[in-house]
Amino acid sequence: MPRHASYVPHGVIPAVLLPFHDDLSIDEASFRKHLRDVTTAEGLSAVTINAHSTEVASCSFDEQQRVLDIAGSEVGDKYPLINGTWADGSLEAARLARMAAAGGASALLVFPPAPFTLGQNTAMALEHFRRIADATDLPLIAFQYPLATGQGYPNETILKMIEEIPTLKAIKDWAGTPQQHEWHVRTLQNLPSRPFNVLSTQSSWLMASLTLGCRGLLSGSGSVIADLQAQLFRAVQAGDLKAAQAVNDRIYPLASVFYAQPWVDMHNRMKEALVLLGKLPRAVVRPPLVKIERAEIDRIRQALIAAKLLPASAAKAA
Fold this sequence. Notes:
CATH topology: TIM Barrel
Structural class: alpha/beta
Shape: globular
Strand order of the largest sheet: 1-8-7-6-5-4-3-2
Number of strands: 8
CATH superfamily: Aldolase class I
Number of helices: 12
Largest sheet: 8 strands, parallel
Low-confidence stretches: none
Distance between the termini: 42 Å
CATH class: Alpha Beta
C-alpha cells in the first residue's frame, strides 16, 4: 500500500468500525465491505483505523497489523490511512508506530497513555511523543482528551509539544468544554511558528464545533454517516447556515442516541445501526463490551428513521 507522503491531517475523516464473528474473531469480509461502504461518501480526506471505533484496546499487535493490511488493500490507494497508536507504554507506542509506517499508514493518531489518569506533567507527554516521533517521520495527531480525565494535555503542555515535536501536525479535539475547544481552535490554528490543525471529534455537537473554525473532523459516527458529516463540513466551510442546519437536523437524532450515557457504548450502538441498515450482518463486540438491550436498539431504529436513513415503515416491521 503506498503512503500518501504529502498528507496533512485535515478535512472529513471517518473512523471505521471492526466487525467480529460470533466467536469474536475479526470478520474480514464484513470489514472490507464496511470500508468500501464508508468510502463511497464524497468529500473525505482520509480514513482512521485501529482506534476507539475499531475496539483497538481488545486487539493484539498482530490483529492491528492485519487491520492495517486489510484497510490498505481496500482503500489505501484511494485515501490516506490514519493508524491509531494505542499503548500505555512509550516503547510499545514506538513499536506500533514503526509497524504502521512500514504498513503504509500516512499519519498516526496518538492516544494518551492510561497512566496519565494518575497524573502527568509536560516532560512525560514530551517523552511519549518524542519516542514515537523518533520511530517514524509520519505526521502525528494528538488525541486531546477532556482535561478532567487526567489524560488531556493542559494548554502549556500542548504548546510545548507543538514547539518541540515538529511532526505533530494536529489534535483530535475531544475537549471537555466549549471554552477549551474554542481555545484550541483560536490558539493552535493561529500559531506564528507553523501551521497546525484542529480536528473536531465533538460528534455530539458537531455543527456548533465546526462553526468555531476547525479545519477538519475525525469521528467514529462517520462509520455510519460519513456522507452527512461531509455535507455538514462543506456547508459550514461555505458559510451556508441554512444548509448546515438542514444537515444537522438529520444528524441530531443519531448523535443523541450514539452519544448517550454510557459513552463506552457509542461504537456498539453504531454497529447496531449498521445492522439495521443492512450493512453489517451482526453487531458483535468484544468484552468487556456487551450487546446493548433491545429497547436501545429500538431507539436507534427510530433515530435512523428521523435521520431519513430508514423508511418510516421500518418502525412497523420491527
